[in-house]
Task: inverse folding
């Protein structure tokens, strides 16, 4: 039996594919390479097995997904495949709804038609919008503040509705801010174009691809005035998926679970630890607040501990050290410079 990983050539999917392989599962990756490359698949194979099956396809195509399920005797699915840029989603809402909701429909349809019931779905802390209270629990109010976030809420609701009338069991993992890389430095985050996320941006400043980091806002109501997030090591996140699959129960229907550390760190704290890890003081400038940013958010990870027996254990220092290791080994990502 095998686990199908849609979007498995991407940042979180590649790390999860490696950890799923280490858990003793047979892994099959399906990805349309819209935000990744075969170089990522080669790197995953170098850490797993040289013939790890990879299918280049659109997860929205339920016929293809169904054929992969039958051919590889798939009995569980982790569905990462989605577009994830907040700013791009504002420019291209139709593409985002079409791809993110369409791929979730394609995957669930293929699962139901072929009798596969265990699904882990990539959700996001973005479903909480700007929270009134922190930390956020799974029952905190939800609300989308951009089209990307709306696609995650629509997918969650779709999965609630489908699980209610089918044999589908769904665990929606709401990730906070994933950073870091595999300790080998062989796989990592490889954004196409100029990164919008904090850690990929500052790493590209560190290798000289970008001039300086803009700190978006130093006038928030936080201890040092910069915005606070729950950064989580991508390897901890990857292990969270294995724990989720291992703990799923038949007829569990739909369960949403936060995957975060439970600790908030400000932009200036991240910058200070990055400077320490990299060994230089990165050039920065203070810029205004970024439109749509929330002031502070971090997870209450109690439910993940209770249901999955999982908790994050890698520090912010380890996240940045591993991210830096990957960036040094691959200054231009998977592409040759
Ligand atoms: P990523 O872009 O690196 O990986 C997504 C992968 O899915 C890419 O390889 C892309 O080529 C593929 N893909 C996209 N649409 C597809 C389709 N229709 N069919 C097949 N493949 C398709 O992104 P990531 O950071 O690894 O995110 C993975 C998942 O986690 C996404 O669902 C994302 O929304 C969610 N998420 C990400 C973050 C984050 O900050 N990175 C936070 C919370 C949730
Ligand atoms: C973190 C902090 C920025 C860049 C995004 C998505 C969210 C989820 C995780 C997918 C913020 C500040 C950033 C820079 C900065 N993704 N910053 N200078 O915005 O918390 O969340 O990724 O589901 O949906 O919105 O992450 O890394 O972009 O920003 O000062 O150049 O760093 O303002 O306070 P964010 P981020």
Result:
């Amino acid at each position: 039996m095998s686990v199908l990983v849609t979007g498995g050539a991407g940042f979180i999917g590649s790390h999860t594919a490696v950890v799923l392989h280490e858990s003793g599962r047979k892994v099959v990756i399906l990805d349309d390479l819209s935000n990744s490359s075969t170089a990522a698949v080669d790197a995953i194979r170098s850490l797993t097995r040289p013939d790890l099956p990879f299918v280049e396809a659109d997860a929205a195509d339920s016929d293809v997904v169904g054929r992969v399920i039958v051919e590889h005797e798939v009995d569980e699915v982790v569905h990462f495949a989605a577009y994830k840029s907040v700013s791009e989603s504002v420019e291209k809402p139709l593409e985002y709804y079409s791809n993110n909701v369409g791929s979730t429909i394609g995957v669930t349809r293929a699962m139901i038609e072929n009798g596969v019931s265990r699904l882990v779905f990539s959700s996001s802390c973005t479903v909480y919008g700007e929270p009134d209270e922190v930390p956020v629990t799974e029952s905190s109010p939800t609300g989308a503040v951009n089209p990307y976030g709306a696609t995650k809420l629509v997918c969650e609701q779709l999965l609630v509705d489908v699980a209610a009338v089918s044999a589908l069991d769904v665990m929606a993992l709401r990730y906070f801010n994933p950073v870091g890389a595999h300790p080998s430095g062989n796989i990592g985050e490889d954004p196409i174009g100029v990164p919008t996320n904090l850690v990929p941006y500052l790493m590209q400043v560190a290798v000289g691809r970008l001039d300086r980091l803009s700190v978006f806002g130093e006038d928030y109501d936080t201890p040092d005035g910069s915005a606070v997030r729950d950064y989580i090591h991508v390897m901890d996140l990857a292990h969270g998926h294995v724990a989720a699959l291992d703990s799923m129960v038949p007829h569990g229907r739909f369960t949403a679970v936060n995957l975060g550390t439970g600790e908030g760190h400000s932009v200036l704290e991240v910058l200070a630890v990055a400077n320490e890890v990299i060994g230089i003081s990165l050039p920065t400038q203070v810029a205004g607040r970024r439109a749509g940013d929330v002031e502070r958010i971090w997870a209450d990870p109690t439910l993940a501990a209770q249901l999955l027996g999982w908790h994050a254990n890698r520090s912010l220092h380890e996240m940045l050290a591993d991210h830096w290791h990957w960036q040094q080994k691959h200054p231009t990502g998977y592409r040759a410079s």
Summary: The chain is about 40% helix and 15% strand. The first helix runs from residue 11 to 22. The first strand starts at residue 2 and ends at 6.
